[in-house]
From TrEMBL:
SMART domains for this protein: HTH_MARR
Signal peptide location: none
Designated name of the protein: MarR family transcriptional regulator
Keyword Endoplasmic reticulum carried by entry: no
InterPro entries in UniProt: HTH_MarR-typ, WH-like_DNA-bd_sf, WH_DNA-bd_sf
Alphabetical keyword list: DNA-binding, Transcription, Transcription regulation
Family matches, as PROSITE patterns: HTH_MARR_2
Keyword field contains Hydrolase: no
Length: 151
């Protein structure tokens, strides 16, 4: 590994740097769990979980709620449709658009994915005390809400 920076300008001390490192670590843990148990990538599992949680969605809404761009959401939706987990139907509110919904097989896998997601999240947070988890939850909610206000 390269030389560590020291002093008040150390990148490793920056919140955004540490958050990025944590995101990479948690993405890897979640991807490994979904791949090993469900043969789904993190992106595919995230879409499956989003449709399961919110019900039928347009691809645009699915991307927004999954924090993916529309093209990523569209490609992953196509993969999940080919796997028989999602079905596209016409959107009565928008004749040009489609809605994406879980199939019966998709609902079954959604329940498994939700369990895996919860247990993996619990494992990631296991190093924290109950009080630290509560504080983290409060802080994250505040930062996310503040980010929404500036969008």
């Amino acid at each position: 590994m390269g030389r560590r920076m020291t002093g008040k300008h150390s990148i490793e001390a920056l919140f955004t740097y540490r958050l990025h490192v944590l995101k990479k670590q948690t993405d890897r843990a979640m991807n490994d769990a979904f791949t090993a148990s469900l043969s789904l990538s993190l992106t595919e599992a995230r879409l499956l979980l989003t449709v399961g949680a919110f019900g039928p969605l347009s691809v645009s809404d699915l991307g927004r709620l999954s924090n993916l761009d529309r093209s990523q959401a569209s490609r992953a939706t196509d993969v999940l449709e080919r796997k028989g987990l999602l079905a596209k139907t016409s959107n009565e509110a928008d004749a040009r658009g489609v809605l994406v919904a879980l199939t019966t097989q998709g609902r079954n896998l959604y329940r498994r994915a939700a369990t895996i997601s919860k247990s993996t999240n619990d494992a990631i947070l296991a190093t924290l005390s109950d009080h630290e988890r509560e504080v983290l939850d409060t802080v994250l909610a505040k930062l996310v809400e503040n980010g929404r206000e500036s969008d």
